[in-house]
Amino acid sequence: MRGWGVVPALDWSDAGQMAGPTLNDGVVRLRQWEIADARWYAVTAAHDDLIQRFATESPTLTAEQVRAAIVELANTADSAGFVICDADSGERLGNIGLRHAGGVGLASYWLAASARGRGAATRALRLLSDWAFECLALDELQLWTHAENSASRRVAERAGFVRCPALDQRRQVKAGVWDTVAYRLPAPTDRSGLSSGCQSTAHIVVP
Description:
- The chain has 207 residues and is an alpha+beta fold.
- The protein has one domain: 3-Layer(aba) Sandwich (Aminopeptidase).
- Helices cover 26% and strands 31% of the residues.
- The protein contains five helices and eleven strands; from the N terminus they run E-E-E-H-H-H-E-E-E-H-E-H-E-E-E-E.
- It has helices at 38-47, 49-54, 63-74, 120-135, 150-158; strands at residues 17-19, 23-24, 28-32, 79-86, 92-101, 104-111, 140-146, 162-163, 169-173, 176-186, 201-203.
- Strands 2, 3, 4, 5, 6, 7, 8, 9 and 10 form a nine-stranded mixed sheet that branches. A two-stranded antiparallel sheet has the order 1-11.
- A hairpin with a 2-residue loop joins strand 5 (92-101) and strand 6 (104-111).
């Protein structure tokens, strides 16, 4: 769900259901986005200096735009987005998302300032990766990060991704051109050891 941009307003009364898992390793939990999360997402993404420097989130992102994006995500078969939460307290820690096509998934993630430095993003990326390989049967995951985003690069490497310089790109992002570096993670040959679980259907919760 990184880099949503402007999405037209929708009627929340017809929000329907969002299919997807709740993933948990005992330390972090990935759950589906709910309408009630929209204000937290917008405030965190628009006002955090590091997110603004290294992610595609708009500095003018509003809760209304996030609400619309959450509802749109529910009806998008090739994308998934999760709140990264503390497994015990339920505290929101960040965002992680996946878009996929042709057997390849593109991952993205960010953490709120209070959640950084405790391994939450690495754990979340591992959970997402296992789920994508087991439940979506993807062949490979890829991700790009700003070349100067050393923390994001460490997350990718600790989660098992390897550098792929052949896929590095210069990208037009917001008002500038970014040098981005690529990482990839092939699916394991034996997927029997994956333990994400392909279950659960979560509802969009409309307060």
